[in-house]
Amino acid sequence: MQPSQTLIEQAAAACARGTKGVALTGAGISVESGIPPFRGKGGLWEKIDPMKYAHIDALVSNPAEVWEVLFRGIGELLTTATPNAGHLGLQRLEQMGILQTVITQNVDGLHQKAGSSDVIEFHGTHAVLRCMGCHVRSDWQAITLDRIPPVCPCGAYLRPDVVMFGEPIDVGLLRRSQILSANCDVMLVVGTSATVEPAAYLPLIAKDRGAFIIEINPEPTPLTDRVSDVTLLGPAGEVMERIVAAVANIQGRSL
Question: Which residues are listed for Zn(2+) binding in this entry (predicted)?
Fold first, then answer.
C-alpha cells in the first residue's frame, strides 16, 4: 500500500516551508540499490554472527577471516551499487534549498554518489581503507586485494574505515549531528528502524525543538504515531519521488 496523496502533500508542505532540513537515513534507503540491510529480515546478521565477524576484537585477533567473511563481499557489492530515487530525492531537496545535511548510518557512500554535499557518516565509510598501525587512509579502489588482508606500506593491516562493534562513534560527528538536529526545522527519517543509539535519539532532539518529523519506512517503527508528524509507509525511492514532485509543484518548479 502506498501513502495517500494527502499525507504526501502534508510532508511536501512541511519541506517547502523548511530551510534548515536534516535527513537521517539508514539501511532501508539503500535496499533499492541492491544493498541488503544488516538487521531485520533478510539482513546480513541473519547469515553471519556480528560478534564473531563485526567486532573490533575479531578483527584484531583474526583479520584474514574477517576480511574474507565480511569486508571483501561488502566492498565488492558497494563498488557496483548506484544511488536510487531515495538518495537522488534528498539531493534534489538540497538543490531546492530545503535540506542542509544528511546524517547517515550507512557506510555505502551512495549519498555522496548522488551529489549530496554535506554527509555525516555516523558509522564511517567502506569507500576508504585505514591502516591499523599508522592510520593513514587510502581509497578502496587504489588497493589491490590479491592479498587478504591487504597490507599498508608501514607493514600493518588495512581495514575499512567503518565503526565496528566495540568501537565508539566519533564524538565530533555525534556532537555536530546533535546540534543540527536541535536546530533543524524539518527532519526526514528515511529507511531506519530508529532503534540503534545514539542515532535513534536524533529525531527526539529535533521533535523537542519544534521540528516537523517526516518518517519514510516500509514498516512502522518506535517513531510512528509517537514522534513522527507524518509517517509514509513504503519504499524510500518511490515515496521520495512523490514528495519531491509535490514540493516542486508547491514551489512552481519543473523537475
Answer: 131, 134, 152, 154
pLDDT band at 139 (very low <50, low <70, confident <90, very high): confident
Tell me the C-alpha distance between 139 and 215, whole Å. 34
Residue 3 sits in the same domain as residue 58? no
For the ranges 12-26, 29-43, 193-207, the one whose mean pLDDT is highest = 12-26
Is 184 annotated in a binding site? The answer is no
Task: Please identify every residue annotated as catalytic.
Answer: 123
Checking DSSP bridges between strand 124-131 and strand 158-162, what pairing results, if any? antiparallel
Question: Using alpha carbons only, how large is the chain's radius of gyration in Å?
Answer: 19
The reply to whether 63 and 173 lie within a common domain is no
Euclidean distance between CA atoms 125 and 162, whole angstroms: 5
Question: Which CATH number is 136's domain given?
Answer: 3.30.1600.10
Please check if 134 is assigned to a binding site: yes
Same domain flag for 114 and 140: no
Would you say how long the chain is, in residues? 255
Residue 203 has what pLDDT? 96
State the residue range of the domain holding 111.
Answer: 1-32+83-123+169-255
pLDDT digits (tens, 9 = 90+) for 236-253: 999 999 999 999 999 886
76 or 185: which leads in pLDDT: 185
Question: What are phi and psi for residue 175, nearest 5 degrees?
Answer: -65, -45
CATH code, 208: 3.40.50.1220
The Cα–Cα gap between 197 and 205 comes to 13
Cell of residue 144, nine digits: 589491490
Judge whether 119 and 102 are in contact, CB under 8 Å.
Answer: yes
| pLDDT over threshold 60, residue 45 | no
